[in-house]
Amino acid sequence: MNELRVFVGDRLAGHLTRSNGRYAFEYVSEYAGPPVFLGWEKTKKSREWETFPPAFDGLLPEGVLLDQLLAKHKLDKADKWGQLVAVGRDLTGFVSVLPDDGEEKPWGKFSPGEKPRKRTPIHPPEKALRHYQASEMVAYHAKHKLRMSLSGMQPKVSAVFSRQKGCFQIVESNGSYILKPSPQAFPGAAENEVLTMQLAKAAGIDVPHCGWLQAKDDCGVFWIERFDRWGAGNRHRIRCEDACQILEVPSSWKYAGNLEAVAGMIRQHCSNPRLQLVKFFQRILFCWVTGNGDMHLKNWSLIENGPLIELAPAYDLLNTRILIDDEEESALTLDGQKHGFDHSLLIDYLGRQICGVNERMRAKLLNQLKSLDWPSLISGSKLSSEARRAYENLVRERLGVLLH
To answer: I need a labelling partner for 218 at 20 to 30 A (CA). Which of 34, 226, 250, 273 fits?
Structure first.
């Protein structure tokens, strides 16, 4: 199989082909929808690569999911074409990639310019995961063939929620929610993530609906709503692309980038770049204060919100500093460095020079961080007492640097 059909929603947009180690994409002449990826203007009917195209590479699973995909589908790690075939019907965003035999049809559809409708928030009861142990979730795709793709190194499964039964059900594909049990190497990660997401929401950052539950074996599990699909049966799909895809960087290079490039991506592709750069600056400050040293290129995404291209809701927010002793201050460099951040670098260089945030807004964002009731929110979390102390001490220390 050397040709695949590429769909945007339910519309055939073009074909991806491979020949003699090279790859090519060409739009079909009758396609009238939006570009398949940001920057893939339709005036350029075809494009070629000598290696697997980064935009498609960014759609493939990573970490535990990748290992399970390779084992269950009997694929080689270097066979990214085969991986794309295996999961291409249920990818992040509005793109589907299907074999060229014409038998399979895409699940989703896309309505250009239509603003997504938010789901009614769920409020899972304590026993919403009563049917599953955390170990079952981790091993789920070792027993069931992986048919969907989600990036990230942590173990995770796709799920739907039954309001009638008040519980989650794991599904092989087309889920509305993602369940993430704490990895064995990082106990407390689920509790850490839900706290950090709650803190972000309290700080005025847009985050998806999410929460924490206990599995059948009492292990903590973080759940989060997907924001790249909506409507009955999740049929409506939304453009969502991460910085690796947009900057044409392979996912394996996700740590080999800089925050200046992400700001440039926002400036180039967002419909309202001045507002989005303020939001970007706000998130960087929050992530630094909360010790998140893992905001790599795949953790920055743009989403199509009706007629607008904007920053996607924040995701994968954790205090990695209290999980990893030698963690860097930033996954991406800022002015060539990943540590030693201070007021001048963050406020003057990033805020004023790179993001163009005016003095009044910079002061407002700093005041928001200062006025947040960090001790109450952290002490009320499900982290261990030791982790709560470490989290609060780090926040106090870094706020002191910002607000000196």
So the answer is: 226
How much is the pTM? 0.94
Q: Shortest CA distance to 398 belongs to which of 339, 348, 352, 335?
A: 339
CA angle 339, 316, 185 (to 5 degrees): 80
Position of tokens 């609906």? 209
Angle at 243 between CA 192 and CA 63, to 5 degrees: 50
Domains, the chain, with CATH or none: 1-51 (no CATH), 236-402 (1.10.1070.20)
Give the per-residue SS3 of the chain.
CCEEEEEECCEEEEEEEEECCEEEEEECCCCCCCCCCCCCCCCCCEEEECCCCHHHHCCCCCHHHHHHHHHHHCCCCCCHHHHHHHHCCCCCCCEEEEECCCCCCCCCECCCCCCCCCCCCCCCCCCCCCCCCHHHHHHHHHHCCCCCCCCCCCCCEEEEEECCCCEEEEECCCCCEEEEECCCCCCCHHHHHHHHHHHHHHCCCCCCCEEEEECCCCCEEEEEECCCEECHHHCEECCEEEHHHHCCCCHHHCCCCEHHHHHHHHHHHCCCHHHHHHHHHHHHHHHHHCCCCCCCHHHCEEEEECCEEEECCCCCCCCHHHCCCCCCCCCCEECCECCCCCHHHHHHHHHHHHCCCCHHHHHHHHHHHHHCCHHHHHHCCCCCHHHHHHHHHHHHHHHHHHCC
Instruction: Name the pairing type of β-strands 95-99 and 210-214.
Output: unpaired
Torsion angle, CA of 121/109/101/54, rounded to 10 degrees? Answer: -80
* Block residue for tokens 């809701």: 313
Structure tokens, 116: 């997504």
140: closest CA among 150, 125, 121, 155? 155
> In this predicted model, what pLDDT tens digit does every residue of 285-329 receive, in sequence order?
999 999 999 999 999 999 999 999 999 999 999 999 999 988 999
Measured distance CA(218)–CA(76) in Å, rounded: 36
